[in-house]
Design brief:
mainly alpha
Length: 230
Amino acid sequence: MTSKLRAFSNRKIARIAGGVYLGIIVGGLAGSMLIRGELVDLQNAQYTLTQLVQQEVLYRWGFFSDLVMVICDLVIAFLFYALFRKVHHGIAALATLFRLLQTGVLASNLVHLYQPLLLVQQPDVVPERVIFHLQVFEMGYLISGVFFAFNCLLMGYLVWKSSGFPKVLGILLALAGIGYGFNSLSHFVFPSAIEASSQFMFFTAIVGELGFCLYLLVVGSYGKSIAISE
């Protein structure tokens, strides 16, 4: 009876984690690609300022989607710890720490994302000041990516060791971690590799994170159990 209750509890945690993870993916893509990708051009300050003035409501929705993503990141850190702590308590705790560090950087970085909304209210706003805060926001995002890279590597190990998940998911999550780390490193140290690293990060993140997210949802809803290695 105890093992059945534990399996039910793990399925429930997995299902919730999958839903929260889906919220992170949707919120992140909506804010960064669908909204800011249309409104923000870091190479064209005047265009960006004009877009923010004309489509302020849309930009605010982009900010909101990033805020939701950060909140979901905080929640999922503890859900994953609850799900994987019996695989390896120390590594699960370390993975949680790196995820919380990433979340802290993202949360504080939202100030720079909101700052342009304050600047556009000024009659003598300088377009370059708007761009400056958006550039700082992008750098903050990359810094958070360093912590997230370690989180993905550790999560990849935990998924690999757990008997409740296909080992390929652990490999894909680890590759996503390498992608995030490579992308951040290229921006800070090797600018010539930015384009290649961005493409590699996007591909590995979509395959690894989305695959893991969907597996959590499916197994959490219909699987027999999320078997946890003692």
